[in-house]
Every structure is written in structure tokens, then in C-alpha cells.
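Task 17 of the worksheet. Students: predict the tertiary structure of the chain below and write it out as C-alpha cells. Keep your answer in the requested format; marks are given for formatting as well as content.
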Amino acid sequence: MDLSFIVMQFLSGLMMATLLFLVASGLTLIFGVGNVFNFSHGSFYMIGAYLAYQAVSVWHTNFWASVIFAALGAGVLGMLAEALFLRRIYGRSDEGGFQILLTYSFILVIDDVVKLVWGTEYKSLARPTGFTGAVDIGGLTIPAYNLAIIGIGLLVVFMAWLILSRTRPGRIARAAALDREMLGSMGVNVPLVMTLVFGIATAMGGFAGALAAPLRSVSPGAGIEVIIDSLIVVVIGGMGNFWGAWLGALILGEVNSFAVATVPDWASLFNYLVMALTLIFKPEGLFASRKIRKV
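Model answer:
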């Protein structure tokens, strides 16, 4: 195992971690702020991929414009789902069970809508102009689009941290995570906050789906695949913890990258092995506290 192989696999894992984090951070934001386990979050990733395909392949728009369109579309659908359905079960004693049933039903509905609109055939999307080739760095040939995803992902991580920790909307979202009633008594429109948080989180999922579309085939059921990996990420990092989601995505991305390259037949096993070890030695996740839930 030479150094060039290690560097190449590390970058491949970092690219995979970036996409996973974009999905998992939305999932953890919804759980952290609204205490809602959105089982259908992967479906918004899939919707983002299909909207990007629609914009580029059917309407012939610019790829980067299609990414923004996909994020906005997924965000609007997420806000509608929250406002029309999830809001109605907040505060019920059996909320957890209803959340799982309701969000799982979203998966079935969205999958059927996708089949109805785009069919069941696999779709593909070309890489954007200017990012189809490779970049030579220190003798290593690295796909330019992979580097673009890593750069965009790091920028999104920084912006998300900045908004959550340094701005008033971020402080309001964190306050909603701790005590919604107290926040409402201070005159804040809590239902609107919840809707916006849900919209931002699902937009991040759609954004990730659009970015991943040139790397993977777009097909119905893609949401299930990504939600499983995202759940492993939030379990490793700690439910509702932003930096935990980043660390969990990085661990899973790197483990998967090296496992695929060295033991491809057993690669998926390592994802579950990492999760099992985390649950054994730190059941609350690597970053989450047993008593305090953070955003």
C-alpha cells in the first residue's frame, strides 16, 4: 500500500463524507431543533437528484443553476410536508410513533410520484463543463469534480456553523431546540421557525442529491440507500449534534473508501461494524451528551 494509494483513497473518502454530511446534517438539524426523526429525509436527496436531471437534461439549463433549483425545490417540498402534516402531531404523547409512520409514508408517496413523473428507468447526468477532466497534484491525478464537491462541502460546513452560532436566526433555532414554549412566550413565531428549519434541512438534502447526480445513477429508491448511511452517521456522531454529524460522515466516508478498495465484497459490513462499536462503547454517539442535546 503506497502513499499515492492512501492519498487517493483519502480524497475519495473525503468526497463521499462531504455528500453524506450534507444529507446527515439536515437530518440532525431536524432532530436537534424539532425532535423529529424524519425517516423520509433520503427521499428529498432523491428529489434533488431528479430535479437537477429535469433542469439539465430536459430544460437544458446550466448545471450549477440546476443545483440551486434542486435545493430550492426540495426545500419547498419539505416546508409543505412540515406545515401540512408533521405540524399536526407535535406535542402528542405518541408523537414518536406517528413521526416514524408518517415520514415513512412520505417515502412511499415520493417514490411513487417519482416513478409517475420520470419513470422507472435509470437516469444519468453529465459532469458540469470545466469539471469533466482531472487535476494533477503532486503526481496524483484527481477528478476535478471530486475536488469541487469537497470544496463546496467545506464551504457549506463553515456557512452552516456561522449561521447556527453567530446569527440571530441560528440562536433562535438553538433556542427552539431547548424550549419551544419559552421561545413562543417571547413573541417568536415558533411554527414558522419549525417550517423554515425543515425547509433548510430538506434543501441541504436536495443540494446533496443534485451534486451526487453526475457520480451515481438517478433512480427510484435512491433515498433508502442514502438514509441508511445517514442514520449510521448520526448514530456515530450523536443524534442532533452538528459537529458529530461531520465527524460521523468523515469516519464512514473514509472507512467505506478504503474498504471498497481493499475488500470490496465486505465493504458494507464495515459501516455496520463502526456503528456497532460506537453503540457498544459510547451509545449516545461520539459528540452527544447523555443529558444535553445540542444543535
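Marker's comment: DSSP finds eleven helices and two strands in the chain. The mean pLDDT is 86.
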